[in-house]
Amino acid sequence: MAKLVSKTYGEAIFDLAVEENVLGQVQEEIQFVKDVLNENAELVSFLNHPKITKEEKVRVVENIFKGKLGDITVGFLVTVVNKERYGQLIEIFEYFEDKVRQFKNIGVVSVTSAIELTEEQKSKLTDRLLKITGFAELEFVYFVEPEIIGGMIIRIGDRIVDSSIRTKIDVMAKDMSKVQLS
Known about the structure:
Peroxidase, domain 1, four-stranded mixed beta sheet, 62% helix
């Protein structure tokens, strides 16, 4: 059910933003709303409080965001409050962001290495991946895990390229265990 809600609302604001040619603006505004929600636990508690009326919640949302955000984003937030879907806002925003990435042909890359990569290594990796993936742009998330010993593990969507030394050792050990000496 939560996925259906996030899909329905996420697509609605995405489609409206594209139709009105304000996708970049709405994307920035949604990031602003996410930041506000992350920094204000009281607001989240207020929105989730069962004894506070929808009208009061709408009034507070409008007071906070009107004038700071465009009409589309404020109207969207009011609709979410009126439909009592504020508990799914984060999932809705994540779905929206995924739609924006698809629309703009942006890939999300997770890179795990044994040590921190230098800026030069990151730049070379970006250039190489842009050439072989066909994405217009890439967003990177970097992780350092010394236990992989060396090499990298690169994940793009459901594709994984594991060139870590740890995996190579594990594969060799598995292959060696199959060898029978007579």
